[in-house]
Write a structure and sequence with these properties.
The protein is an alpha+beta fold. The protein has a single domain, classed as Peptide Deformylase (Alpha-Beta Complex). About 20% of the residues lie in helices and about 30% in strands. Bound molecules: zinc ion. Zinc ion binds next to helix 2.
Length: about 160
């Protein structure tokens, strides 16, 4: 059983902060494992496809990306949830695409956001291993949306009118 955490809403200061990197001493710790488990449970219960730690009032650079097909993105790939600690987007493709986004922190609002079609990201696992991976399409969109949260940016600030 994992803890379900309250989710911060648009307008709250926690969502405007630049989150702090997870420190070396925190890798492989019970605390980091529990944070990731609680984030995942909170995302799942709200049927999200991604979540960032600041959304659960923890100003740390931890995100979860969990694409699955849905009404708006029927072709989105089904993937196991990936926990990314201290993620950095190394490359954004020149090619962009417009797509609809929503957010657990912005209830009842959706909008069109232009994002890079493909991103290359480097992150650490909960154990501290370094991983580099490339994401395309909907999963790439989720990565960009969640990394934005770590920098205090909400999708509503990126809407294409
Ligand atoms: Zn969000």
């Amino acid at each position: 059983m994992s803890v379900i955490l309250p989710v911060a809403k648009q307008g709250e200061d926690i969502l405007k902060l630049k989150a702090a990197p997870v420190a070396e001493s925190e890798f492989n710790s019970e605390w980091l494992q529990q944070l990731a488990a609680a984030m995942q449970a909170t995302m799942s219960v709200r049927e999200g496809v991604g979540i960032a730690a600041p959304q659960v009032y923890i100003s740390k650079r931890v995100i979860i990306v969990a694409s699955r097909s849905n009404v708006r993105y029927p072709d989105a790939p089904e993937m196991d949830a990936v926990v990314m600690v201290n993620p950095e987007i190394l490359e954004f493709s020149q090619e962009t695409c417009l797509g609809e986004e929503g957010c657990l922190s912005v209830p009842n609002e959706r909008g069109q956001v232009e994002r890079a079609q493909t991103v290359k990201v480097r992150y650490r696992t909960l154990q501290g291993d370094v991983v580099e991976a490339t994401y395309e399409g909907f999963p790439a969109r989720i990565v960009q949306h969640e990394v934005d949260h770590l920098d205090g940016v909400l999708f509503v600030e990126r809407l294409t009118l």
